[in-house]
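Example record

The entry below shows one chain as it appears in the dataset: sequence first, then structure tokens.
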Amino acid sequence: MMRAVTGTDATGDSLVAPNDASPTCGIAEAIAALPTGGGRVRLDAGVYRLRDTIHLPASVSLVGSGPATVLDIAPLRAVPLAQDAPEGSNEVQLVEASSFRAGDAVGLTDTTNRGWWGTHTTVTRVDGTTVWVDRPVNRGLTAGDEAVAVNLFPAIQADDVSDIEIADLSVRGPGGADGPWWDFTYSAIHVVRCERTRIRDCSVTGWPSDGISIQRGYDAQVTGCRAHGCRGHGYHPGTGLGHSIWSHNIGKGNGGDGLYFCMGVHHSVCSDNVFTENGQNGIGGVANGGDHHDIISNNVCSYNGLCGIDANRGEEQLITGNLLLGNSRSDPGRWPGVRLHDMRHTLVQGNRCADDQDTPTQTFGIVESGESDVNLVSGNLCAGMSVGVEIAGPGSQAEGNLV
């Protein structure tokens, strides 16, 4: 067991080193010891094996010592429920509970109650196969609907607070997490309804869900981060998030999109990122679900499974200056560099669509389809594509493109 080293430095920052006696390795205790007005907790280099989520209150910075500061979790154990768990219950019956102990964060979910309807809670007591938890079941769970208790939780979470910072650390998922794609509420870093969030120079690798998720709130910046090999999306702005910036990040080899715009994202910028070798799109979900007035510019989207950029069922987007290279690798010849499906009032300008592979997979450049209309596609370079630019809407215009 590593002994905790907790104190303050010359600047007054709280200092923490790994401490196995605490479900958060002493990090939650250091945060609780900060003054009422907040402050900074600095983590020494080392591996912090978490059994529970680190919750950030307002005006708190959690800062590591670079890539050598690693937060990780134990290998996943998804244990089926032995019987239904009714809404409001504080206990669940499992087929076996030997792997759980008091202080463990658990997720309770079934095939119907996932996302916002799942339950995130902490074990208070275990007796045989009965597990008591500190938060009641959010929605009733049905054993016949694959209800499970899983030792998965966000490594860092913040809810309904302002002025938080997460910087200079790594979050590492368990090896061999080849089960289901756990929903976004289990993201490694999960921020909900917060104002003035800063996440910088963090790495998330191998997480069983999304890497970095910011839902609702406004005034958020995610910069200089890396999300590699997550089961879900690398980055996930969503659920009405406004006035956010996602820049100078890398998303590589994630199971979903490199960056996924969920519903209601508005007045936000996604720029100067690299999204490569992801299972779905480089950038996906653009405009879908009421996103509006966002800027997607100067990104590299390369060798992804589906589109370079997928924009569908929405309006009022600016897609400019991106490099869309060698995408559609999961189904060669099907997915374009930029897809506009049921889109309106969108500017697609100055993008480069190409494929430098020996056997090209991205053979379409910029394709408008469905009920798309009143879009402007101009000044794009799609030379080398079998179809450079394809327009469907009678009010859309394609001008000045090289194909």
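Notes for this example: Residues 82 and 95 are 5 Å apart (CA to CA). Residues 27-32 form the longest helix (6 residues).
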